[in-house]
Structure formats: C-alpha cells, structure tokens
Design goal:
The chain is an alpha/beta fold. The chain contains 8 helices and 10 strands. Helices cover 37% and strands 29% of the residues. The strands form 2 sheets. A 6-stranded mixed β-sheet has the order 6-7-8-3-9-10, sandwiched between helices. Strands 2-1-4-5 form a 4-stranded antiparallel β-sheet, with helices on one face. Helix 3 runs parallel beside helix 5 and helix 4 packs across helix 5. The structure holds adenosine-5'-diphosphate (2 copies). One of its GO terms (molecular function) is ATP binding.
Length: 232
C-alpha cells in the first residue's frame, strides 16, 4: 500500500517559486492499476519523480508498506529504488546494446552474475513476447516492440511497483492497445502495483481500476474509472 500524505514540491527558479505539487494526498492499494490524468504542467511528472525517488519532496511523505521513503538513508534508498520499475514515453533504451543486454542492464548495475542475468533477461523477453528479437538492436524494432523491451527491463529487479510515464503516448492506437494488454497481463501474473500517468483518456478507461485527476498540483477528482467517466 502506498500512502502519499500532504506531498508538496516547490521549485525555485529565477522567476520565483513554482508550486508543482500542493499538499497532495492519495492512497494506492497493492495490485491496483491506478491512473493519474491531467493537463500539461499539472505536476504529473513531478509526482512520478518523487515516487521514483529521483526528486525530494519539499514537504510531506510517501509511505510504501509502512516505510517512509523520504526518511531512507542512501543505501536503503538505492535498494528501494531497485524495487520500483519505470517505463518512459521515449523508451530510453541503449542503442548500442541488443534487446537482451538492454533488459539485463539493471541486473548488471545490481551486480548480478552474468549467467543469472542472462537467464532472467531471457525469461522477461519471453514474457513480453519478444523471444525472437533478443539479439536485435533497438533501431531494428517498432515502437511497440521497443516499449516491450522497456517493460521487460523495468521488471528485471522484480519490482513491487511499476511507474509508467506516458508510456503509450508515442505509439499508434494498435500498439497502444497491445502495450496496455501486456501491462494488464503483467499485473495479473506478477501481482504488482502499476501507477500510470497519461493525458490520454482512452488509456485510463482501458486498464485502470481507479483514477485521480490532477490540476495545478492538486487532485481535483478521484474515484473508480466507472464513477468518473460514467457521470452525465
Ligand atoms: P506535467 O508532467 O503534468 O506536465 P510537471 O510536473 O512537468 O507537469 O510540471 C509541473 C510544474 O512544475 C510546471 O509549472 C513546470 O513548469 C514546473 N517544473 C517542472 N519541473 C521543473 C524544474 N525542474 N524546475 C522548475 N520548474 C519545474
Ligand atoms: P567485457 O566487458 O569483458 O569486454 P562484456 O561483459 O561486455 O565483456 O561482454 C562479453 C560478451 O558477453 C559480449 O559478447 C557480450 O555481448 C556478452 N554479454 C555481456 N553481458 C551480457 C549480458 N548481460 N547479457 C547478454 N550478453 C552479455
């Protein structure tokens, strides 16, 4: 269970202080696919960077299974970060590495032995349906296939939480559908929690259990997808 309490992030710039997130409160259940939707500049990326422990909050806390992420020492922070997978709009693959070596990259960083990381990477490449592409380079793949690699890589360290930042925004409708189906399958099979940030209504409707609408750093509406979208 993730509990976000009074989370606040201010950026200090030459033009003054920007309040990107303002005393935001949110609880997300284990195994849930939770959607966060809102216009550009609403604070979605800032929120996800704090969840991913890439950015410190100005105030407030993020508790994951009773552990306050904002209190962790740097060693524990690194371990906690490994348990959070992230997928990106532009995939962020390493172009000089094959699919296999992209997927095993986080395991290399974690110091896993070569034989083990190849075994694990192959399992994940199978899971995302790219078994025949393991030795290809990213440039040889379609957008949807690249995102499959991104998903496999995000799962390398067996995360409890998968964060998706506009992961289908660069894809055509057909690839979007197949990536969303894959995320739903992964949630079922691996039983992890997925937080999905998007500006696409269709994505939310398709796979999210619950959704929060964010504007100017605040949640302005929250509920089950049916509740939010069925209103007249
Ligand atoms: P979204 O992802 O919803 O488009 P962001 O989280 O990127 O929103 O941005 C929220 C607000 O914070 C915007 O006003 C943006 O300009 C500002 N902002 C985001 N990142 C920074 C930064 N590193 N420095 C200064 N301002 C930032
Ligand atoms: P070195 O750094 O000792 O030169 P590498 O570890 O980079 O060697 O690679 C040696 C060989 O093993 C290369 O052919 C490379 O493609 C392969 N290899 C290395 N790491 C991986 C990995 N994680 N997954 C698959 N193949 C790997």
């Amino acid at each position: 269970m993730i509990k976000i309490k009074d989370l606040t992030k201010h950026y200090h710039t030459e033009q003054g202080s920007i309040e990107a997130i303002n005393e935001l409160n949110l609880e997300i259940n284990d195994g849930e696919i939770f959607g966060i939707i809102g216009p550009s500049g609403a604070g979605k990326s800032t929120l996800i960077r704090m969840l991913n422990l890439l950015e410190d909050p100005t105030a407030g806390s993020i508790m994951v299974n009773e552990v306050n992420l904002t209190d962790l020492s740097s060693l524990n922070l690194r371990q906690a970060r490994q348990k959070i997978g992230m997928i990106f709009q532009h995939f962020n693959l390493l172009s000089s590495r094959t699919v296999l070596r992209n997927v095993s990259f986080p395991l290399e960083i974690a110091g896993v032995a070569k034989k083990q990381r190849i075994k694990k990477a192959k399992e994940l490449i199978d899971l995302v349906g790219l078994a025949d592409k393991a030795d290809n380079y990213p440039a040889q793949l379609s957008g949807g296939q690249k995102q499959r690699v991104g998903i496999a890589r995000a799962l390398a360290n067996d995360p409890d939480l998968l964060l998706s930042d506009e992961a289908t925004s660069s894809l055509d409708p057909e690839s979007t559908k197949s990536i969303l189906d894959l995320l739903a399958k992964i949630r079922e099979e691996l039983n992890l929690t997925i937080i999905l940030i998007t500006h696409e209504m269709g994505v939310i409707k398709d796979i999210c259990d619950r959704v929060a609408v964010i504007e100017e750093g605040r949640i302005i509406e929250k509920g089950s997808v049916l509740d939010i979208f069925a209103r007249p």
